[in-house]
Amino acid sequence: MKSWMLSLVLTMASLSAAADDKPSLLIYQSPQEYTHEVRMGMMPYFSRWVLKGPAADAAALAALAPHFSEIGRCDGGSGADVLMWLRPRISYNPVSATYYAQVSAQVHLGSGQYLKTLKANAEQPGPIQSVYADALVRKAFDGVMQQIASQFAADAALQADIAQARAKDMTKAPCAIIGVVPNP
């Protein structure tokens, strides 16, 4: 009985140590991504208004979660080991009935220091006049964010920079600071 308890405690300790090895992440998007809709398609028959911020945000949270110990949205005053500024774009081609999603993700340390920009594109076929258009937009952003997550995981230099900054116990600035950092 005692050996079973000991193995349980050791397993829990190893799981918590593995979770501590991953950095925390906060995702920032411009407030305009949540308030200004984008018109896609051709007027007047093949068009639709879409908010790209919520779809890109949900896709980013799902795709990047396996690579971080904690992940969340920037609320302005909180800090994390890594800050990621997402800049989503979405368009629609009515001739080919395809949604085109593009994301530029600037990766910053928690102090606000710029590290790298990751970019990806994805396509999602589907009609614009469908009641499922919002779901198709989300699928397009899911594809883009899976590519961004793969790029992040495969970049050894980026991982090393983040690990080195975490080892120095860097100061974590409020996450909204990256909204005012000049573009590299």
Structure description:
This protein has helices spanning 2-20, 32-35, 52-64, 133-154, 156-167, and strands spanning 24-28, 38-42, 46-50, 70-73, 82-93, 98-109, 114-125. The protein has 184 residues and is of the alpha/beta class. The radius of gyration is 19 Å and the shape is elongated. Mean pLDDT is 83; it is low at 1-19.
Short description:
With 184 residues, the chain is an alpha/beta fold. The protein has helices spanning 2-20, 32-35, 52-64, 133-154, 156-167; strands spanning 24-28, 38-42, 46-50, 70-73, 82-93, 98-109, 114-125. Helix content is 38%, strand content 30%.
Spans where pLDDT lies below 50 across 5 or more residues: 1-19
Structural class: alpha/beta
How widely separated are the two ends?
A: 59 Å
User: Can you write the helix and strand succession as a string?
Assistant: HEHEEHEEEEHH
Radius of gyration: 19 Å
The largest sheet is: 5 strands, mixed
Proportion in β-strands: 25-35%
Strand element count: 7
Key terms:
184 residues, alpha/beta, 5-stranded mixed sheet, 38% helix, elongated
Question: Helix and strand layout, with pairings?
Answer:
Layout: H1 2-20, E1 24-28, H2 32-35, E2 38-42, E3 46-50, H3 52-64, E4 70-73, E5 82-93, E6 98-109, E7 114-125, H4 133-154, H5 156-167
Parallel strand pairs: 1-4, 1-5
Antiparallel strand pairs: 2-3, 5-6, 6-7
Helix pairs in contact: 3-4
